[in-house]
Amino acid sequence: MNPNGVVVFPSHYSVKETIDRLQAFLLQRGVTIYARIDQQAEVNNTGQNLLPLEFIMFGNPKVGGLVMAENPMAALDLPLKAIAWQDAQQHVWIACNDVIYLQQRFGLPGALIAPLDITTIVAKALE
What is the pLDDT of residues 29-53, one digit of tens each? Predict the structure, then answer.
């Protein structure tokens, strides 16, 4: 189920609480939250059913700016994003792009891309 370049973590929290925890963790570290979308509510408003799914977009313009200066196409994946969803077995998951994938995709130096590695952030937010 892991598409190329995506890191998936299990969460012991509901979808909403998973994103709440990530958002709080990011805000405590001065990260900008650009958008948060309750995808389930949006889809359910169309008459379709979707299990809980939330999206969050966030970043640090200082760090992202250096990356985009190196390769403007990196803006396709910046700001950073994460999604949390509940599956049919009522397990909750959270996923984000793998920093190594971003590095390879845009040919970026490791030292430049390292601050975009959000896997540690996600893990700490879910502790």
Answer: 999 999 999 999 999 999 999 999 9
Give 36's contacts (C-beta < 8 A, 6+ positions apart).
19, 23, 54, 55, 56, 57
Cβ within 8 Å of residue 104, ≥6 positions away: none
Distance CA(64)–CA(79), nearest Å, equals: 7
Distances (CA, A) of 92 to 49, 97, 124: 17, 17, 16
* DSSP 8-state symbol, 89: T
Q: From CA 68, how far away is CA 74, in angstroms rounded?
A: 6
- Alpha-carbon gap, residue 81 to 93, rounded angstroms: 14
Alpha-carbon 63 to chain mean position: 16
Would the pTM count as exceeding 0.85?
yes
The structure tokens 């379709």 sit at: 48
